Amino acid sequence: MSNSMKGMSLITLEEFSPEQVQALLSQAIELKRKKKARIFPRSLADRNFCLIFQRPSCRTRTAFAIAAADEGAQAHAMSPQEIRFGSGESIKDIARVLGRMFDGIAIRAYDTPLIEEVAEHAGVPVWNALTEQHHPTQALADFMTLQENGIALPGAKMAYVGEGKANVVTSLMVAAAKLGVELRVVTPKGHHPEPSLVDRLLGWRHNDKAKIVVTSDMREGLLGADAVYADMWVPMEGNWDIPAMARDFRGYQINRAAMAMTENPRAIFLHCMPSQHNLETEFARKHPEAIEATDEVFDGPLSRAIDQAENRMHTIKALMVSTV
User: Fold this and answer.
1) What whole-number distance in Å separates Cα of residue 143 and Cα of residue 214?
2) 3-class SS of residue 85
3) Which of 87, 110, 186, 248 has the largest CB neighbor count within 10 A?
4) What is the DSSP annotation of 262-322?
């Protein structure tokens, strides 16, 4: 199955079939096992990857760099000042040159069309490391985390509580439709994902267990969930009225009472991070009304947020190995 992905780019995850997505997850689990055993196949020896991050990154950038090194490749980070997409040089020209020098390109940008244009002209795999619209490598790590916790796909039930128009939940919806997962998007009115997007994703679902349920009712969304997925309610970049935005999410904090709404004592807690779950950050001290989860849950025995963050490395490694 890996050979069928050779040369593919990851832009939104829609370009991958359900079988290919599952193959990536299975390979990631195996690569994680090998890394824990200090076994490194180094299947990307003598390869060179370009990392372009126009926006801040902690987990994604680190995951790409370490995944490449584990498999014997070199990762070269380039700053926005060095890559002047469309300002000092055309996107097409930059993409063609980078494609001649590198075996794969990871890009974190503001808008997905930029990554699509690079992929069109580079001639090598291009991987979306996050845009305003999509975060596909995050979704891969999320579903890997479900599987390694014994939550079978298809048939899993996941409740996402947060901004319904966010890039993370968009990619979760894509993956859920492909893998037969019931995803409940729990978000206040006015924050629901676009109905046309939900309809489009469900229109080509490959498993009748795939569902996308959008609700503003916490109890309806969490009841029976195998996993409760929290996300920050507000952005940390840009000039926003944070108190006003956070007011919409009153009652949506993931705390012990919210987890009890699942009526599933084995329900795990997930978070894409960064997370505001205490007053240890400058942002949370300034905006305590925007704390989306409690320490009791985030650091509780059923939290898998840190595992989930680590799994970014393993799924990205599987992605690079499979497409290069």
Assistant:
1) 19
2) strand
3) 186
4) T--TT-EEEE-S----SS-SHHHHH-GGG--B-HHHHTSTTB-HHHHHHHHHHHHHHHHHH
This prediction has a pTM of: 0.95
Instruction: Find tokens 């990857």 and name the residue.
Output: 49
Confidence (pLDDT) at 273: 96
With beta carbons less than 8 A apart as the criterion, state whether 107 and 115 touch: yes
Rounded to whole angstroms, the Cα distance separating 15 from 128 reads 12
Peptide bond into 154 cis (omega under 30): yes
Q: Which residues of the chain have pLDDT under 70?
A: 1-3, 204
Token digits of residue 36: 């824990």
Please, how many CA atoms are within 13 Å of residue 178, restricted to the half-sphere of its CB?
24
pLDDT of amino acid 280: 96
Q: Which tens digit of pLDDT belongs to each residue from 21-46? A: 999 999 999 999 999 999 999 999 99
Q: Please give the pLDDT value at position 3.
A: 59
Query: Residue 309: what are its φ and ψ, rounded to 5°?
Result: -65, -45
